[in-house]
Amino acid sequence: MTEEVKLKLFKKIISENDIAKELRKRKKDHFTVSIPKKNVAEIEEYTENGWLLDKEFINKQRFKKEKSHDILFEDKVWSLFASLGFKFMNLNRKLEIPYDKHNPNLTQQIDVLAKDEESIILLECKSTKEKNKNGDFKKELEAYKSKMHGIRTSLRQIFPDEKLKFQFILATENYSISHNDMERLKGINGIHFDDEAISYYYEMLKQIGLATRYQLLGGIFYGQEIPEMNNEIPAIKGKMGGHTYYSFSIEPEKLLKIGYVLHRNKANLNMMPTYQRIIKRNRLKSVHKFVDDKKGYFPNSIIISIDSGNKNDLEFKKANTQSDSSISKIGLLYLPKKYRSAFIIDGQHRLYGYANSIYKTSNSIPVVAFLNLNRTEQVKLFMQINENQKAVSKNLRNTLNADLLWTSDNYTEQLTALRSRIAIFLGESRNSALYDKISIGEDNKIITQQAFENALKKCNFLGKVSKNRIERLGSFYNGDLDECYNRLSELLRFTFNYFKNCVPNLWDDPNSIIVINKGIYAIIKIQSDIIDHLLHKEIISKTHKPKVIFDESKTYLDSLIIFFQDMDEETEKNLRKAYGTAGDTKYWRTLQQVIQDDHPEFSPSGLEEYRKKEEKEYNTKTFEYVREIETFFKEDFKEKLINEFGGGWLKKGVPPSTLKKAHDLAFEKNMQIEDEDNEVENWDCLTIIAYRSIALKNWRPIFEKEYSRLEEGKKSGNKEDKTKWMVHLEKIRNKTVHDYYVSEEEFSFVENIYDWLIKNRN
């Protein structure tokens, strides 16, 4: 590379002072430009290209233009690395690096370049507005494969006196990455950062400042050496629980360099299992204040696991003098001089509280370091430590079970892990309609992991197990956890994606009646019912592929799609207001009934019994409402007729035919009553239809104002129309008397009449 080419490249790379200035621009969501007012042609050119006047000065005008989504994302990525303290960054998008030593004109444009004392990071940024779009980066990644060696050679010539590590990162926003593209990335030693990872590091940056850089470098350069680190520490070597451990004191800054926190977060999906809670800002501030302002200290040890990699990474040299009475040994411990070689199991807040402290190099903190604990053992230790300290949240516990119990010999625990892992997959996969909607780990979302797992536990997908045996195989579980996980995850992904595609407005509505705990619970349960039905009819077999099984279920799911599309406010209200276990069951049974209406052959176990029980419950409450309404009629009609007609109210106000029917009914009842004190009067024997006839006879002067009620949707009608509700009420009343089943719709009608006549008037 010629000096001229080097100089040209240097002009496109800025250092600390200029980075701060550029960072202020990059953080804005728009571009700005100031133009002298006299440059009329230039102003016209900018306005024609979409620039808007932002502010007017004496001699200049300032214009602004919103950044496109791809530039916004690129600037967000650039700003992250600049904020993390990288010393050199590219000035703009026009950084082009030669990759052919024979032809310096062949160059590769770089979106983001970040360099510190030890490394150079190159980032290709891709963004789309469409959520969870399937990405295809074959062309870009294969191009980089042929150019990467030349790019690195050129950068080494620009910085000839430094031994630099290189890392290529594909940074994406709203894209899902295919397996083939991930393999192409591995082929060029590249890694993938999605927008979850970018957001994670931004959140860390807000919490712990520049110390986030250690976490970032640990992730990027896992296993690579940290130059010039003094790794010699006095230590005691011992055994605990069958594990080797070292006890020592160390300056916080050293541990920050090699330490890594396994946060349970989407950014760390490739490092499963992960277990730590995200660092809390307030807790971190209190630690920092305690250390710096009050000169406080923590006598309890930070617990870590050292990943020694190979036997040469960690060395312990015993001292010449040892205590003969102790099984522990004292000596010098040489820690691995590598990024992410120490996993922080307990004490992350204490450690990172020192990150910006004036005492990070002069204080020492006690550490108990286990050697090469595998991830599952780390999770167990984390859970044990936190059992009697700050409680691990229920969601985090459920998430950890996916890793902690997977290899258990206990069948019950195995299925607990399986349910958890399926929930995690659907909540964290960008190809899933439930992406970012299930609470995983410390993330709080619309759907709780517990509700999701409860549905899987209560349906027939997984059969039934006890601690020591499989009692009944399920429609998907045959004893093989991995096979069941792969097949059932796919079936449920197809199912939920189908709902999202068919009712997108309902699915994405923040107040969705579907994407709530009981809605997701019901869909999982109903799909299990459908699969059982298809198996019973021998339409499918348990060996069919998930896509084939799903395709056969669609005809039944379509009934639910139509149900959700046509759902009225009253139905939605009834589904929403049912809470707890009863609410889950009501939602699920409602979906069963919807399918059965369209497919009479669909008859899941327990539906008929549930329907009868529900209707019987409606009977009781409906009967109570009707009796109160009849009592109200008896008192209110009498009062109104007396006020209108005085002493002759009965003959003047009641139609003769109605009065005769009441007289005959009273006569029949009194003939069967022996005690005269218990005999009834004519007025006691009026039916709801009789009250309607009285209302119609005296409509305009007495009853029109308070007894008019039209069917929903009607704006006007005569007195017959306005009192039809009394006819319907009489029919329902007769059902309750003769022990016929009252439907939910009929119950709702009576409840509304009760509220209108009695409840809302009191």
TrEMBL record:
<dbReference type="InterPro" id="IPR017601">
    <property type="entry name" value="DGQHR-contain_dom"/>
</dbReference>
<dbReference type="Pfam" id="PF14072">
    <property type="entry name" value="DndB"/>
</dbReference>
<protein>
    <submittedName>
        <fullName>DNA sulfur modification protein DndB</fullName>
    </submittedName>
</protein>
<dbReference type="InterPro" id="IPR017642">
    <property type="entry name" value="DNA_S_mod_DndB"/>
</dbReference>
